[in-house]
Amino acid sequence: MMILLISQESVDVQKLTEGIKPVIGVENAPIKIVLFTDPDCPYCRITHGNLIEYAKNRPDVALYIRLFPLVQIHPNAYRKSEVLACTPEDKIPEVIKAIEERSTREPFSWDWLKFDKKTLKKIQDCVNKDLGKKRVEKDLSLGFSLGVRGTPTMFINGKRHVGALRTVEDVDRVVRSYTE
């Protein structure tokens, strides 16, 4: 069963993607998916892999990630979000996978990341300088201003969709419903 909540109102895609680069795809792709996610949200964890797989197989899709940790119910999600915010875009799917291999109750550990020392140090320095925190706060502020209240919430070419996408076919069906 797929949860599907559709809003006909549209949000400016430029506002959604301002200051970030796609995790997968290119900025000028005609289909832009902006996902507001919490790394410890079980419905997000279902959705991440499906969105990533879908975007990898579609040169016309750009997938962007906005971090929206729901710390009231996922107390470890904020630190994981900071790490994701500091991770180079092309490495984010790897970090998401490493996080999802652990329990949501488990606090983040640098041992989870299997990057070369230079990449790992760059991420750690970014987190230690609170740059990840600044990005997370910016994403939270943007999300709240757009009425995001839960995760996963995504905007497909500016149109809101709330709920898990349990299969790649679900992703395709939802994307087509917003873009055709």
Fold and architecture overview:
The chain is an alpha+beta fold. The protein has one domain (5-175): 3-Layer(aba) Sandwich (Glutaredoxin), CATH 3.40.30. 43% of the residues lie in helices and 16% in strands. It is built from seven helices and five strands; from the N terminus they run βαβαβααααββα. It has helices at residues 13-17, 42-56, 77-86, 92-100, 117-128, 131-145, 168-179; strands at 5-10, 31-37, 61-67, 153-156, 159-162. The protein has a five-stranded mixed sheet, with helices on both faces. β4 (153-156) and β5 form a beta hairpin. α2 (42-56) runs antiparallel to α4. The longest helix is centred in the first third of the chain and has 15 residues, at 42-56. The protein is globular and about 45 Å long.
Topology:
Layout: E1 5-10, H1 13-17, E2 31-37, H2 42-56, E3 61-67, H3 77-86, H4 92-100, H5 117-128, H6 131-145, E4 153-156, E5 159-162, H7 168-179
Helix pairs in contact: 2-4, 3-5, 3-6
**Assembly level:** single chain
- Which value, in Å, is the CA radius of gyration? 15 Å
Q: What is the CATH C-level name? A: Alpha Beta
Counted up, domains total: 1
Report the uncertain regions. none
**H/E topology pattern:** EHEHEHHHHEEH
| Morphology | globular
Percent in strands: 15-25%
Distance between the terminal alpha carbons, to the nearest Å?
A: 23 Å
The count of strands amounts to 5
Main beta sheet strand tally, sense and closure? 5 strands, mixed
**Structural class, please?**
alpha+beta
CATH superfamily annotation = Glutaredoxin
Mean pLDDT rating: 94
The helix tally amounts to 7
Biggest sheet: strands side by side, in what order?
Answer: 1-5-4-2-3
